[in-house]
């Protein structure tokens, strides 16, 4: 398995897609029930293959990632050859931008001396989607890129 298995909730959301996936494997409902009961290791493999297919599709479509920490905001635009990063650092340890109050402070004080902006380009490894997945596993979330675009315009 390349990524990780989908959660029970994700499988429930993708129930119809999973049925279609099994159909492409020529596995009927009865065969799936039998597989789960009598060959659970094969059923587990099918769940893993389906999970990897879903992750590949999601990661291929992802264009932006965001990750918030108490004093840092990491914003990424996921290009074809490299990712562009914008990092917003808060130098005052008393301000936590993961809270509503801290985020509002940042919004109202973007040009304060306690706010630092950094930009960088980062090359992908040989497996671009695995790079994206690792960032998600570390807490990044896929977004539409509104914050990235806002800060990119602000600091460019």
Helices and strands, with pairings:
Layout: H1 8-13, H2 15-24, H3 29-38, H4 40-61, E1 64-69, E2 72-78, E3 82-90, H5 100-108, E4 115-123, H6 128-137, E5 141-143, H7 146-155
Antiparallel strand pairs: 1-2, 1-5, 2-3, 3-4
Helix pairs in contact: 3-4, 4-6
Q: What does this molecule look like?
A:
The chain is of the alpha+beta class. The protein folds into two domains: 8-61; 64-155, no CATH class. It contains seven helices and five strands, in the order H-H-H-H-E-E-E-H-E-H-E-H. The protein has a five-stranded antiparallel beta sheet, with helices on both faces. A hairpin with a 3-residue loop joins strand 2 (72-78) and strand 3 (82-90). Helix 4 (40-61) crosses helix 6 (128-137). The longest helix has 22 residues, at 40-61. The radius of gyration is 21 Å and the shape is elongated. The protein starts with 7 loop residues before the first helix and ends with a helix. The model has no long low-confidence stretch (mean pLDDT 94).
Q: What would you say about this model in short?
A:
The protein is of the alpha+beta class and 156 residues long. 49% of the residues lie in helices and 22% in strands.
Secondary structure tally: strands = 5
Helix content: 40-55%
Cα Rg: 21 Å
Largest beta-sheet details: 5 strands, antiparallel
**Low-pLDDT sequence parts:** none
Query: What is the chain-wise order of helices and strands?
Result: HHHHEEEHEHEH
Q: How would you sum up the global shape?
A: elongated
Lateral strand order in the biggest sheet: 4-3-2-1-5
- How would you state the average pLDDT, rounded? 94
Number of DSSP helical runs: 7
Distance between the termini: 41 Å
Number of domains: 2
Give the class from helix and strand content and strand pairing.
alpha+beta
Strand content: 15-25%
Protein name: DUF6495 family protein
Pfam families: DUF6495 (PF20105)
């Amino acid at each position: 398995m390349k990524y990780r298995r989908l959660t029970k909730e994700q499988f429930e959301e993708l129930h119809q897609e999973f049925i279609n996936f099994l159909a492409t494997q020529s596995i009927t409902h009865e065969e799936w029930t039998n597989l789960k009961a009598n060959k659970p290791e094969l059923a587990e493999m099918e769940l893993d293959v389906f999970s990897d297919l879903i992750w590949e599709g999601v990661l291929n479509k992802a264009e932006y990632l965001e990750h918030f920490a108490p004093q840092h905001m990491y914003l990424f635009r996921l290009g074809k050859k490299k990712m562009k990063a914008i990092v917003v650092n808060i130098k005052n340890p008393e301000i936590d931008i993961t809270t509503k109050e801290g985020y509002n402070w940042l919004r109202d004080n973007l040009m304060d001396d306690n706010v630092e902006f950094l930009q960088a380009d980062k090359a992908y490894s040989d497996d671009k989607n695995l790079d994206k997945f690792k960032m998600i596993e570390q807490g990044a979330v896929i977004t539409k890129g509104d914050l990235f675009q806002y800060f990119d315009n602000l600091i460019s």
